[in-house]
Amino acid sequence: MVEEKYKEDIEKAKEHFAQLVMEQLERVERLKNESDWIDYSTLKPIIIGFIGGDGIGPYIAKEARRVLEHMLKDEIESGKVEMRNIEGLTIENRAKVGKAIPDDVLEEIKKCHVLLKGPTTTPKKGDGMPNIESANVALRRELDLFANVRPVRVPEEGIDWVIVRENTEGAYMLGSKGIEVTPDLAIDFRVITSQGAERIIRYAFEYARKNGINRVTVVTKANVIKTTDGKFLEIAERVAKEYPEVEWDDWFIDIMTAKILDPARRKNFRVMVMPNLYGDIISDEAAQIQGGVGTAGSANIGKRYAMFEAIHGTALRMVEEGRAKYADPVSMIRAAAMMLNHIGYTDKARKLNMALDICTQYERKITITGRSDGATTEELGEYIMNTLLDARLEERWKAYTEKISS
Ligand code: IPM
Ligand code: MG
Q: Could you give the CA distance from residue 383 to residue 98 in angstroms, rounded to a whole number?
């Protein structure tokens, strides 16, 4: 009966689904022939693209750019590094052309090697804007930035986490391609491929190995979401065998959100790897424990491209209320440090992180509240810059670490 009544709807849904399956199978074939990792040391110049974004984006991106320009002064002068402005990835322009990333902007982006990007607005249904896909999600897909790496540290509490979020599959991959079969029935799709799961899990174990970390925690909901999360976990079991020196365990996402609040347990987590949406949620929660989403940077890493950004959104409310100039730039500056590290300037990255630790976790001579009772974005940027320039930087940082360990 139902079959008769909804015959046309069912046919349309089947066709839609067949199309998605085909696209994903094509993607799997591409993943099987993936290229090797890019080697930044052989590039001249390494091209860094800047994208201001929307809302508070341009305000906080400006501070990060200032720091980077200072730290890479010699490299820019000698032609080893080139900095470029990428215009047009704004919500106004994206809404105008009705695309997550306008074609000409994507073309410019693809000429760069790494990107520093401010947050971009993602319209949701009913916002009164064209319901275009998130620019983030589209960029991660277009540039195949499969590893979303989000470090969170609270040294006083022994917290030193690295959240490794799968960035190109899960609930996000087809998040804009669900079906409204009838006005009463909406279905979304969630994708895990063997290749996609393996490369992110391997990334997490490699990260642990390279950084001398002996624990990887795999987070799923494999007891309920059996097919996709089941595959993710199964692949983790297999890959883990190749890293006998790294202990690993697996947790379900619900209890994980509780346990990272448990002071007795949370110190034990180190590298955590998980499918896309779980990583989105856990990383905001973790960042809040560190002092707020405005404090955390995020790296989106692929074999050819990499993009560095804040973990948070555009905070349009701050702009509407005239508070954009009080936005916390630390997330973007942390992202800049991750970029320096990624392209091979590990010592510069270390120094920048030291300056950030001193200014935001140790001395806190000025603090940001997001309102006029706190420092401005520019003032905090200035403080970080002066700390970075201080010849006593290492000493000041040492005083901090000694205080924590005593
Ligand atoms: C993030 C953000 C994005 C995401 C939004 C802006 C689409 O929350 O980077 O975590 O959900 O991935
Ligand atoms: Mg998020």
A: 40
